[in-house]
Amino acid sequence: MMAWLGFFYHPFWAVSTALLAAVVRLQMRNRWNPQACAVRLTGKTAIVTGANTGIGKFIALDFARRGARVILACRSEARGTAALNEIREKTGNLDVHLRLVDLSSMDSVRAFAERILKEEKALHILVNNAGVSGLPRNITKDGFEESFATNHLGPFLLTNLLLDLMKSSSPSRIVSVSSVNHKRGKVDFSHFHGKNLSYCMDQVYNNTKLHNIICTNELARRLKGTDVTANSVHPGIVMTEVLRHYSFWVRWIFNLIGFFFFKSPEAGAVSTIYCAVAEELEGVTGKYVDSDCSLTLPIPLARDAALAVKDFEFCERLTSKL
């Protein structure tokens, strides 16, 4: 028995793990480098939801470095202010601003959009980045399952409320941060009200990410001819705070594995930045961009045109009542 234990404690395993991690990290390198992209955003306005932490903060940081007027759409004033000060200090761009919004509340989304429409003359980039995973079952005051409200209905409503401003500012881009986890998602419209849902691990999150792609594709179809594009993106498996609602042991295992194999938030932001600024994506719409910045196909369910119309209209009805 001790001989077997000695075999597994052999330095070979540590070296092998380190080499495997190095190989995986090399394979995770993006084919597009934001630092090599000379695109400037001077005179452009961008909104990034969930910009106080994780990939959202690095997306906002990149936009600020390119000279954009950047609006950080955050729920926490304290954390949003900290991110605001950090971005201003690192970029020297003082045209970075914090606006508070709780995407799980349709009233908060409407108030945020109303302020944007009142204060901003243009909007060129909207990044729907904010998202949650692992929340326990909870129904919002609007009657929606909280994860569905935060991850999908809130961004869906926000996007639609700002569409006219984006059309008048065109060319403009809408980027929906989805996930490869959409492949394990299901479509059941009762889920929006918290019915027939499995709360095992990330199943609810997976469902919302599938809806993100479906509705973004339908939005892109509806926006044809307006010079406003809408695309979905997978950022990769990223070491962020998205698992903060899971148990300690789940987070511990994720962080342990992630230390070797997952992307940093800065690396995870690259594919979203690519969708928002890359010149080669000018006019490209209704696509799904993988974490390596390549165009790829989501699952067939996400490409079902009839389902997309049904899903979009269902979400319109839900949010128009509020």
TrEMBL record:
InterPro entries: NAD(P)-bd_dom_sf (IPR036291), SDR_fam (IPR002347). Keywords: Oxidoreductase. One of its GO terms (molecular function) is oxidoreductase activity. Coiled coil: none annotated. Belongs to the short-chain dehydrogenases/reductases (SDR) family. This is Retinol dehydrogenase 12-like. It comes from Pundamilia nyererei. The gene is LOC102204673.
